[in-house]
Batch of 4 targets.
Target 1
Amino acid sequence: NPGANAGEVINPIGGNPVAAGADFSGTFSNEKLSIKLVSGFAGWTGTIKTGDKEYPISSATVNGSKISGKFTAGGNSFDFDGALEGKTLTLSTGGATYNLTKAAAANPLGQ
């Protein structure tokens, strides 16, 4: 079981089942809100969008199939947590929970 031993080094281009199964990159949405996540050097960033309002996400961290971070609204910072199972991200914040589905990637040559 790769990664089972605390000191084990994981090959970054090898078959790491945790990393392969926890792809948070992209857009997840339902009828009420959407979240777009991008991996970067400072952690995961992106935006949460509801209606015509967008809230920036900064420095979210991933641990296996879970993500946690903060978004900013009106100058205030709020915590969120998420769990990824397949293409469904369950996002929780402030006592509310949202089940969001990952959007299929658009083929730029598919027109």
Note: The beta strands are 26-29, 34-40, 43-50, 53-63, 66-73, 76-85, 88-93, 96-102.
Target 2
Amino acid sequence: KTPLDDFVREHLAAVLMKMKPKDGVAADPEQNWCLADDGRQTVLLYSLGGTSIRLLQTLSQGGYTGLWFDPRTGNTRPMESSVLLAAGTTLEKPTPEPWLVLLRGNREKL
């Protein structure tokens, strides 16, 4: 069992099977990967390194709430506020180490 198991069970179990890799969402594709459902209401970004994740595509016209997940410890921390995820938006990571961020359209529940 890994720290990721509980995170997936608690936050992604109902939607993970509906999510697919989405190329071109984030800059630096060697460091940043994206999974999203077709409506992009649930988006999971995985960043291997760096201090931020810069979006290359607008994900939706609405706002998103976010939950950062530390794969080393299993700890989570909410993003401080709702964000609009337009092309050019930069998400500042908690630290430069690997992090996942789960983003849900404001009509979805984290």
Note: Helices lie at 3-12.
Target 3
Amino acid sequence: RRLSLGPDEQAVFGSEGVFRAVRRKKSSKVLSWQEGCLVFEEDRLSDILATLERRFNVRFVVEESIDESEVFTMQFNSTETIDDVLRVLASMGKFRYVKHNGKIFLNERE
């Protein structure tokens, strides 16, 4: 299937590589990405985790009770670590994270 994108449009693919949607994105987000920054603008938790997995070469295990459709808006510069990102994300969400055996587990806050 062939797809044409216009200015400020982004193709969204699921973790299986299947096309899901076309989203309008601000050019500033693309420019930030080119500079190594992480910019999330009303992005779903599932999409953010997929980006973090690629960027930091990590694997997330998400507890079933966590709403992966929750949206977040945040930005990180290129020098911030996965721990920096996770601290902010966990403070904004309803979960905590634990790193164990090379995986990052997201669990509901007690």
Note: Helices lie at 27-34, 45-56, 82-92.
Target 4
Amino acid sequence: DGGAVKPRGFKAGGMIRGPGTGTSDSIQTEKRPGTFIMPADSTQAIGPEALEELGEVDDSAVEEQGEKVPVRLSNGEFELPPEQVQALGEAVLYAIDVVFAGLVLSGGVY
């Protein structure tokens, strides 16, 4: 099943491992809505270690229950669970806000 079931105590998300290639969609599983799957070529270019650090959340904040949807994944892709996607989005929005506030305070043109 390509790792659809994660034992308790393990971090949700991470590298997708299973049969096939980086574009074969050979791994049938289910994921929660809001999960982001980084393509294998992008995962390789960015590096899985860097992706693991993006939008880090406390493992206790990750909720493994709820509705899931069927998906087909490829070996080498990278899963970011909804909580990590949200944390990353909040961090990006905060950074944009800081930059925007800096432009306004400095009288810059935007």
Note: The first helix runs from residue 40 to 46.
